[in-house]
Amino acid sequence: MNDVIYQRIEKSARFQELVRKRQTFAAILSLIMLVLYVGFILLIAFAPGWLGTPLHAGTTVTRGIPIGVGLIVVSFLLTGVYVWRANGEFDRLTKQILSEVKG
Question: What is the Cβ-side half-sphere exposure of residue 31, based on CA atoms within 13 angstroms?
Fold first, then answer.
């Protein structure tokens, strides 16, 4: 019984749409994070003096600290964006697929 349902799901056009949308969205978010992290590592490798420059006179906080914190914040934000879309559009498509297959 379950094998029949699984086969129906795999053949469903909505399932193919869901897989395509989810993979594309995950790839875009992953690419954004990869570019940001690699860019940060390249800054560390090739411009350590610039990153080590204090934000203003008399402080020990350098440019690298807010940039590093910003990367962490961006990763949380992108995770939130993925969860928001997964709980909205992707869950809606999943429910539609299940109702079509079981109905």
Answer: 6
Alpha-carbon distance of 68 to 48, in angstroms, equals 13
Separation in Å, CA 19 to CA 11, 13, 71, 102: 12, 10, 28, 19
* Helix spans in the chain (H): 2-11, 13-46, 48-51, 64-85, 91-102
User: 67-87: per-residue pLDDT in tens?
Assistant: 999 999 999 999 999 999 999
pTM: predicted TM-score of the whole model, two decimal places: 0.84
Domain ranges of the chain: 13-102
- Judged against a pLDDT cut of 90, whether residue 3 lies above it is answered with no
